[in-house]
Amino acid sequence: MSTTTHPVLSHPNRISITTPLPGPKAAAYIARDEAVTSRALGRVYPLVPESGQGCWVTDVDGNTFLDLFAGIAVCATGHCHPALVEAIEQQARKLIHAGGPDVYSPGYAELCERLVEIAPTGAYTGGWEVFLTNSGTESVEGALKLARYFTGRQRVIAFRGGFHGRTVGSLSLTASKAVQRLGFGPLLAGVEHLTFPNRDDCPAGMDETVWGRAQAEQQFHTIFETTTPPEEVAAIVAEPIQGEGGYVVPPDGFFQAIRELCDRYGILFIADEVQTGFGRTGKWFAIEHWGVQPDIICMAKGISSGVPVGGFMARKSVATWPESAHGSTWGGTPIGCAAARANIRVIEEEGLMENAMEQGEWLMARFRELAQETPLLTTVRGMGLMIGLETEDKATAKDWMQGCFEQGVLTLTAGAKSLRLAPPLILSRGEAEIGFGVMRDVLLGMG
Questions:
Q1: Closest Cα partner for 125 from 316, 318, 319, 320?
Q2: Which backbone phi and psi does 319 adopt, to 5 degrees?
Q3: Cis bond leading into 22, ω under 30°?
Q4: How many H helices and E strands in the chain?
Q5: DSSP for 105-167?
Q6: What is the pLDDT of residues 305-343, one digit of tens each?
Q7: What band does 101 get if pLDDT is binned at 50, 70 and 90?
Q8: Contact 8, 26 (CB under 8 A)
């Protein structure tokens, strides 16, 4: 791995808030921004970052923050990892754009080979094909098109609480917040939403796997018998762990039952790993925790730690669409492929999946202890460094996030009343201790 350094990468590795937030430079920039940019973006708090290194971000006024949400789970190897900086710089000096639909873009095949190598293993051994995109929503759109083409069917089943993107097709699957759909209908026809079970709701004394299977089987039996003939369903789409919906972990047995239903009725199972993939939960893909092989896997976010790269991977037996059936001008750019390859190599060589499990387990244990100190924190859940902290109400989650920001820790809300933590996978124990300490003090101070 490269040891190249870069002057922008030096950081104090400590929280340092020296101005009111936002500071004067940030306030001036925000005023310029709000005069000309779309209000649809809906920024969460007044942060104007200027530089970042590892788990730390410095704003334009010199304030330094500990980043525990990593650009919404994007910066898997942290901000500006030297190996990624070097890969991007080297590629930028040689070729920036090639046009994936027209030529054999440099690095495209190499990245696809790596993705196939880390794909979930299981009963299916026929190989995979990869299509590279620029984002998660594009990956979901491509997966939908392929599922419809392969099956010749139109209907799709997704889950309430799920988030799959904001373009019309992916938005039709999204069901995490009503405001995301408000005013954009009619959306894609033939989409039905079921309940995504939370393993925390398993009745006391009941076997979780039995309960998880029942949650799938009962719901699908009902719609197959009443409103949605399985012979018309092209795909079932799910996040292995819901992201925007609150970092909800399903019970054991749930995805196993879905896989069996898909096999029974010729339905494709699409795993949306945009937020859960690339080591965040301690495995390359979160669906591996349940030993289930999807037919199509959607990817983005943590694949490249910040350079726009996405993709979807389909079983070769499913990827039967003809040449020119789908395309993307910028999908799989030389720079994006170089960044993603370096990112995957760092995750592997630096043992970041193992670190995600170790630091995640430590953090969840500390937050469960905190839940015993205050009724404001009701539930702690997650896997690896994908941690959901459910509070007593929406206002508490929002106030907790804002209080942490003011004390130099970056978090993000999720679901109806949760805070989510999705820090870089390089998070050290010392940094975890700093983050937890600030978050604990802020929450207890709210009580």
A1: 316
A2: -80, 65
A3: yes
A4: 12, 15
A5: -TTHHHHHHHHHHTSPPSS--S-EEEEEESSHHHHHHHHHHHHHHHH---EEEEEET----SS
A6: 999 999 999 999 999 999 999 999 999 999 999 999 999
A7: confident
A8: no
What secondary structure, in 3-state letters, does 181-192 show?
Answer: CCCCCCCCCCEE
| Whether 294 contacts 271, CB under 8 Å | yes
User: Under a CB-based contact definition with an 8 Å cutoff, are residues 419 and 411 in contact?
Assistant: yes
Task: Report CA-CA distances (Å) from 304 to 299, 310, 343.
Answer: 10, 9, 6
**Phi, then psi, of 120 in degrees rounded to 5:** -55, 135
- Between CA 386 and CA 426 the distance in angstroms is 13
Tokens of 254: 């749930």
Q: Cα(298)–Cα(142) distance, rounded to whole angstroms?
A: 9
Could you tell me the two tokens for 124?
Answer: 């299916």
**For the segment 237-265, what is each residue's pLDDT rounded down to a tens digit?**
999 999 999 999 999 999 999 999 999 99
Beta-sheet pairing, 155-160 with 191-195:
parallel
CA pair distance 169, 147, nearest whole angstrom: 13
Domains defined for the chain, CATH in brackets? 7-80+352-446 (3.90.1150.10), 88-349 (3.40.640.10)
Alpha-carbon distance 220 to 379, whole Å?
28
% of residues, the chain, pLDDT over 90: 94
The rounded distance, in Å, linking the Cα atoms of 294 and 284 is 14
Residue 75 scores a pLDDT above 90: yes
In the chain, % of residues over pLDDT 70: 97
> Does the pLDDT value for residue 74 go beyond 90?
yes
Q: For residue 129, how many other CB atoms are within 10 A of its CB?
A: 17
pLDDT tens, position by position, 102-143: 899 889 999 999 999 999 987 677 899 999 999 999 999 999
Residues whose CB is less than 8 angstroms from the CB of residue 48 and which lie 6 or more positions away in sequence, other chains included: 22, 25, 26, 29, 30, 59, 60
Total Cβ atoms within 10 A of residue 406: 14
Residue of 9, 14, 25 whose CA lies nearest to 59: 25
